[in-house]
Design a protein that fits this description.
single chain, about 575 residues, alpha/beta, Alpha-D-Glucose-1,6-Bisphosphate, Chain A, domain 3, TATA-Binding Protein, 3 domains, nine-stranded antiparallel beta sheet, six-stranded mixed beta sheet, about 40% helix, globular
């Protein structure tokens, strides 16, 4: 069936949402717009679905959500005798509508549904799946993407995002679903009346918040009277973070008026990603006005958290690698002091996270496990420990993209947990007259200077998608031999193996992934991978040297070479748009 045929079919049958009906009508005489919406289906993977909201098979709408849920329902029904599914959603446009659509399809397939009655953080879904004994669950969110996006995250019975194998099997079932003929559903209100759709109650939320509090490591004697500005960026964090902090003694909290209420348009924050300084502008202004010492900002689904601290120059942002190292060192220090450090402790990071974590782990005798990018792989390691009755060995996991977890009560990054830990970290060192910047400098002096940078190149549409794939193929066929004047010592192709300069090959004991990693002279690194959630190529730069200035200089040179690689040398990718992120 041609793209035009599929479009015409949608014109006839896609009637569940008036916005979809109207959009299909408006593009009737615009072939390029039809192609963009119908040239491919949204890709379903370990992160579920993510795409722009709109009409068509390449968009997030009630029909694509229903089709995905039908396939997932068939998978759950095949695996479980009495299946149950949990649902959470954030503040994004149509999130509640998509959540209801998913609940209707689960119920139509005879699956008991548990659904949060209001927006809630993504980690609370991971908790609910395990706490309520569900067979799986979903969160309707596009995390930190701009307002035009929404998504569909899928979780297994262990509270982790689904594995590659599960995603492949679910995808096969989704592919076989006709969204206009094969989807089974029960009206939402009818489902509530019959009891097959149930509301997740306060008791489950209470257990979640108690579990977060149970991961506290700060002695009760330390003063918690630090001044905090917290912004949920108009997202789901508003329903848990202030409550968690207040219940654990951090009561001096100010929330900016402009970003307090849920709003999927994100009117004061077009790109609601706490990794990006512009996303913190409102919070920084409020911190300056109130003289607050610490700023926290969670993304719309509250699984990532960014922070800034007051300094001599105003406010200084702490990036994901820096905060991860600070928290890792702090947790080890506190657990040793309190006698709660387990025997043979384990921490987990990803292959794009700072190598400085290895130095911290070595100091405290912690086994550090490297996994692929994506917190689901960190959650998977917790599950493996649990299968051996060794989950108490796990003390911390983090990734460079502002995701942290210090407990085993969820299996995903948790910004509620992380916000509490950051406040405890800040209060602990404040009581000693130290800022987090002072502590970070001390760690650099002890372990060496490490600096990182993320480059993000957009490849929009079918043409851009093809160029990105061609670029990755080119880098595999002809790997770079030098970056920033440093020789490439080895190349790790995570679809194949590690190859050294002298031609030796070593296997990679990780799942196959579309990632290429260049190990440079002196411990420097460059990692290149397509994003799993956006039409972007991400390049992670890591520099280590004897000073921060030397690291920054080397990062600048690495960035220059990567720009040349993407724009000029490879796969005719000149039209891509570079989005530099700090």
């Amino acid at each position: 069936m041609s793209m035009l045929d599929v479009y015409l079919l949608w014109r006839e049958l896609a009637t569940l949402d008036i916005d979809v009906v109207e959009e299909l009508r408006q593009i009737a005489n615009e072939p390029a717009q039809i192609e963009d919406r119908f040239y491919r289906e949204l890709e379903f993977g370990t992160g579920g679905l993510r795409g722009m909201i709109g009409a068509g098979i390449n968009r997030m709408n009630v029909h694509t959500v229903a089709k995905a849920t039908q396939g997932y329902s068939q998978y759950i029904n095949a695996k479980f005798i009495a299946p149950m599914a949990a649902i959470a959603y954030d503040s994004r446009i149509k999130s509640s509508r998509f959540a209801q659509a998913a609940a209707e399809v689960f119920a139509g397939n005879g699956i008991q549904v548990w659904m949060y009655p209001q927006i809630m953080p993504t980690p609370s879904l991971s908790f609910a799946v395990r706490s309520l004994g569900c067979s799986g669950g979903i969160v309707i969110t596009a995390s930190h993407n701009p307002a035009k996006y929404n998504g569909y995250k899928v979780y297994g019975p262990d509270g982790c995002q689904i594995t590659t194998e599960a995603a492949s099997e679910i995808q096969q079932r989704i592919d076989a679903v006709n969204p206009f003929a094969d989807v089974l559903r029960i009206d939402f209100e009818e489902g509530v009346r019959s009891g097959i759709i149930r509301i997740i109650g306060e008791d489950t939320i209470r257990r979640y918040l108690d579990a977060v509090a149970g991961a506290s490591v700060l002695p009760r004697t330390v003063d918690r009277g630090v001044s905090i500005v917290y912004t949920p960026l108009n997202g789901a964090g508003i329903n848990c973070v202030p409550r968690c902090l207040t219940e654990n003694g951090f009561t001096n909290i100010v929330i900016p008026d402009e970003q307090h209420e849920p709003d999927g348009n994100f009117p004061t924050c077009p790109f609601p990603n706490p990794e990006v300084r512009e996303a913190l502008d409102v919070g920084l202004r409020w911190a300056e006005q109130t003289g607050s010492e610490l700023l926290l900002a969670t993304d719309p689904d509250c699984d990532r958290v960014g922070a800034a601290v007051r300094s001599r120059d105003g406010y200084t942002l702490i990036n994901g690698n820096e905060m991860g190292v600070l928290l890792f060192d702090f947790i080890c220090r506190m657990r040793l002091a309190s006698g709660t450090m387990p025997k043979h402790p384990v921490a987990v990071t990803t292959i794009v996270t700072t190598p400085m974590a290895k130095r911290v782990a070595a100091k405290y005798g912690v086994e550090l496990i490297d996994v692929l990018t994506g917190f689901k792989f960190i959650g998977e390691q917790i599950g493996l420990l649990e299968s051996k009755h060794e989950e108490t060995r796990y003390i911390f996991g983090f990734e460079e993209s502002y995701g942290y977890l210090s407990g085993t009560f969820v299996r995903d990054k948790d910004a509620v947990n992380a916000s509490l830990l950051i406040c405890e970290l800040f209060a602990y060192y404040k009581a000693q007259g130290k800022s987090l910047l002072d502590v970070l400098d001390t760690l650099y002096e002890q372990f060496g200077f490490y600096q990182s940078r993320l480059l993000s190149f957009s490849f929009d549409g079918s043409t851009g998608f093809a160029k990105m794939n061609a670029l990755m193929a080119s880098l595999r066929d002809e790997p770079l031999s030098q970056i920033a004047g440093l020789s490439v010592e080895a190349v790790a192709d995570y679809q194949l193996s590690v190859r050294t300069q002298d031609g030796k090959e070593e296997p990679i004991d990780l799942p196959k992934s579309n990632v290429i990693r260049f190990f440079l002279l002196g411990g420097n690194e460059v990692v290149i991978r397509p994003s799993g959630t956006e039409p972007k190529l991400k390049i992670y730069l890591t520099a280590t040297s004897d000073s921060k200035a030397a690291c920054v200089k080397l990062l600048d040179e690495m960035e220059r070479d990567m720009n040349a690689t993407v724009y000029e040398d490879r796969a005719s990718a000149r039209e891509s748009v570079l989005e530099r992120q700090p």
